[in-house]
TrEMBL record:
Pfam families from the UniProt entry: Oxidored_q2
Keyword tags: Cell membrane, Membrane, Transmembrane, Transmembrane helix, Ubiquinone
Protein name: NADH-ubiquinone oxidoreductase subunit 4L
GO cellular component, as recorded: plasma membrane
Places the protein is found: Cell membrane
InterPro entries according to UniProt: CPA3_antiporter_subunitC (IPR050601), NUOK/Mnh_C1-like (IPR039428)
Main location: membrane
Residue spans crossing the bilayer: 6-25, 34-56, 87-113
Matches recorded under Gene3D superfamilies: 1.10.287.3510
Membrane topology term: Multi-pass membrane protein
Length: 133
């Protein structure tokens, strides 16, 4: 039963990643691309956290216990890996900063060119290049 739930969880994470990639590649609106990028990034973070999880019961947090005989070997066998958690915390902060930067660029494009549609911006590209950035 545990293996089935674990497989179902991983498949749903991968499906969410594919939905995010589809939104990035196929949606013409930059706002929708930003939303898809956020969904993709969150799914990747969830996948990395899932990689650090152990399928051993009981799972313990990665906090060193008081010194007792055999406590260290039990800690190593049952605690989750803290490295993916630390990497995900860093990725969340960096992802938030990147999303804010992209959102600012999208707002500026809308203010200057009047559209967030990539197709309209592509048609206006010769004008944009003539005017200079």
């Amino acid at each position: 039963m545990i293996a089935f739930l674990w497989t179902l969880t991983l498949l749903s994470i991968i499906a969410t990643m594919l939905i995010g990639l589809y939104g990035i590649a196929r949606r013409p609106s930059l706002v929708k691309k930003l939303i898809a990028l956020t969904i993709f990034g969150d799914a990747v973070n969830l996948f990395v956290v899932a990689l650090g999880y152990r399928l051993i019961y009981p799972v313990e947090p990665p906090i060193l216990p008081e010194w007792e005989k055999g406590a260290l070997s039990n800690f190593i066998a049952h605690s989750v890996d803290p490295l993916p958690q630390a990497l995900v915390i860093t990725a969340v902060v960096i992802g938030m900063a990147v999303n804010v930067l992209i959102a600012f660029a999208i707002i500026q494009m809308y203010r200057i060119y009047g559209s967030t549609d990539v197709r309209n911006l592509r048609r206006k590209l010769p004008e944009i290049l003539r005017e200079g950035l």
